[in-house]
Specification:
130 residues, mainly beta, Thrombin, subunit H, 6-stranded antiparallel barrel, 7 strands
Length: 130
């Protein structure tokens, strides 16, 4: 089994282009503005759950695009709620080319699905990643 690929947000756009050239992307509906790629990226999700309690959780994306992502979460998050995603950055000593922090990405919850005990959330970024 292959280990998940961990990629900073600023490299996702370049990966999308490469994967599109190879046609290895998630099948998309005609309503998608940009194709999604199967890519597990660790993210901190910050928001308020359905009971009104604030939370921060380390989770991962299951797929991602320039305009949205599918994430897993142990929390119940309501549709239309805004959450903030932050990608953990490696220590500054590991590379001078990588920023020491990543700005939060605001996203609106579009849908919720369950897969066994896992909750899946479809998110739309409020601003596309460029």
């Amino acid at each position: 089994m292959l280990a998940p690929v961990l990629v900073p947000w600023y490299l996702v756009r370049a990966l999308e282009t490469d994967i599109l050239k190879k046609k290895q992307f998630v099948a998309s509906s005609s309503t998608r503005r940009s194709p999604r790629i199967r890519l597990q990226v660790p993210v901190f999700v910050r928001g308020t759950d359905a009971s009104g309690a604030e939370f921060i959780e380390l989770t991962k994306t299951l797929n991602i695009s320039a305009t949205g992502a599918c994430i897993t979460s142990a929390h119940i998050i309501r549709p239309d709620q805004v959450v903030h995603l932050t990608i953990p950055a490696p220590s500054p000593a590991s590379s001078s080319l990588i920023p020491s922090e990543t700005p939060p990405i605001a996203a609106k919850v579009l849908r919720q699905d369950s897969l066994g005990e896992m909750r899946l959330f479809g998110l739309e970024f409020l601003r596309a990643i460029e």
